[in-house]
Amino acid sequence: MNPRVTAVTPNANHTITLTFTNGEIRVFDVKPYLDKGIFQELKELRYFNSVKPVLGSVQWKNGQDFCPDMLYMDSTTLVDVDAQPETAPQDLELGIHA
């Protein structure tokens, strides 16, 4: 099973920034869906910006949502937890230099 969404931030360009259960931060582009059925309502930015995380996915108040697996697989990585540098030694965090 792919990681699930824990937080979502709408962006002005009809993308959403997603935080997943594994700590990854990824961007999902909603633009390809804006001319399809129920998703047409998302063209209006005020409504688009009302997106909320719901049960590991995202959802808008009129029921538009995306499969959580699709959100993960079709998004691009902004922050990869595996690529994060290791925590600095305690001495460096305190500003102590040898």
Chain-wise SSE layout:
Elements: E1 5-10, E2 15-20, E3 25-29, H1 45-48, E4 52-54, E5 57-59, H2 68-73, E6 76-79, H3 90-93
Antiparallel strand pairs: 1-2, 2-3, 3-6, 4-5
Short summary:
With about 100 residues, the protein is an alpha+beta fold.
Descriptive overview:
This protein has 98 residues and is α+β, with helices and mostly antiparallel strands. Helix content is 14%, strand content 28%. Strands 1-2-3-6 form a 4-stranded antiparallel β-sheet. A two-stranded antiparallel sheet has the order 4-5. The longest helix has 6 residues, at 68-73. The chain is globular and about 35 Å long.
Keywords:
NE0471 N-terminal domain-like; alpha+beta; 28% strand; 98 residues; 6 strands; two-stranded antiparallel sheet
Helix-strand sequence: EEEHEEHEH
CATH architecture: 2-Layer Sandwich
Number of helices: 3
Number of strands: 6
What is the terminal-to-terminal distance? 46 Å
